[in-house]
Amino acid sequence: MKINISFIILLTSKLIYSQSANLDGDFAIGNGFSVGHTVSTMSLLNCNKIIISGLNFTNFNGTTLSSNIIRLNSNGTFDTNLNNGSVSLVNSIAQQNDGKIIMAGNAGFNFYRIRRFNTDFSIDNTFSVGINSNNGFNEKINKILIQNDGKILVYGNFTAYSSTTTKQLTRLTNNGSLDTNFNTNIINIPAINLTNGVRYFSLLSNGKILVATNSTPKLIRLNSDGTIDNTFTTSTVNNLVSTITEQSDNKILVSTTVGLNNGQLQRLNSDGSIDNTFTTYNITNALINEIHHLSTNKILISNFNGAPSSSRMVRLNSNGNIDSTFNI
Hints:
The chain is mostly beta strands. The chain has 3 helices and 23 strands. The strands form 8 sheets. A 4-stranded antiparallel β-sheet has the order 17-18-19-20, with no helix packed on it. Residues 1-18 have low confidence and may be disordered.
């Protein structure tokens, strides 16, 4: 998916705290990327530097690039200290507590779908996946998340990890080996084990895992070991899920696709039941792309696929009503 870099930069700036959306003049990217560059993902590191990955990177604000991954300083200037060689498209970036960085995506030179880098961005050879193109995952990775215990949840189009069958959602240990206990538990869940059964997943603060499926039920919760959590109500979400975000109070924001191309945002209680204090947000002929629960308890969302310009970024009050004081 092509991402508008100015939108993401806005999200990491002072915008979310202000009443109107203004560019942060202290963030000095200059001319940024040239036309034709595609930004696929960004991640704010613990040191406040910013990792950006995409396709067709040739220069950034006048600096010639030799990689599809670059790093910016916290003020938006180009960090010349990062040079990891050419890679293919990166879809997801996650940083461990020790500062090491895991990147995952499509195959490429020195990459092979998932790699871990040391803090100086040299390849971490203690991470045992991706030695050559025949190892690791057999198809692209869409998203990775790191659990509190250091294990790595991986979601993508794959059907195998090396010679072991594992479909779309699996877990690696901290050294990159397959967590066979987790894989054994989820492989018998029909909605997950189907071909293209998984649409999305989210790691909750209590260590449990929400999984959106292309089957029925549309949303299920797993315990941390991959077994089904039968205490979670699965009958409240009837449409295909696009995005999941957990609030600080453990309520769950879920965006879905209604019909062919209409977006909807609803909120669930922590047990999966509908939160009746929340007004469902609907948008016609457009889909919800991102949800951010802000420290003010307001909710920032982005809409795309035909949304009018005035509706591409919307802020909601904590009860789901549109915040009319937010003006882009």
